[in-house]
Design brief:
The protein has 105 residues and is mainly α. The chain contains 4 helices and no strands. The longest helix has 22 residues. It starts with a helix and ends with a helix.
Length: 105
Amino acid sequence: MAWIMLLVAGLFEVVWAVAMKQSAGFTRLWPSLVTLVGMVISFVLLSAAMRSIPLGTAYTIWTGIGAVGAFVVGVTLLGEHLSVMRVVAAVLIVSGLVLMKLSAD
């Protein structure tokens, strides 16, 4: 269950990061509210997952899901630049996440 909470926490990190981008520096109400609500949900789920997943593992996976998820959303929905170097970086992050998960007790 902790791993599911961590996964969902990471997905909410993507939600709040994208909403923050859409908030235009917190000048737009609804994206700003989505940012704040997404942050709270993400942090609560991360905190709950950390009850049984080691700190380093949980935090690394949470931020990795957020980083790669934000990259994918940026490229697919926001028209951000896609390059070989950025894809390689994302693959390296995912590889690190897999290794971190495999090393978790």
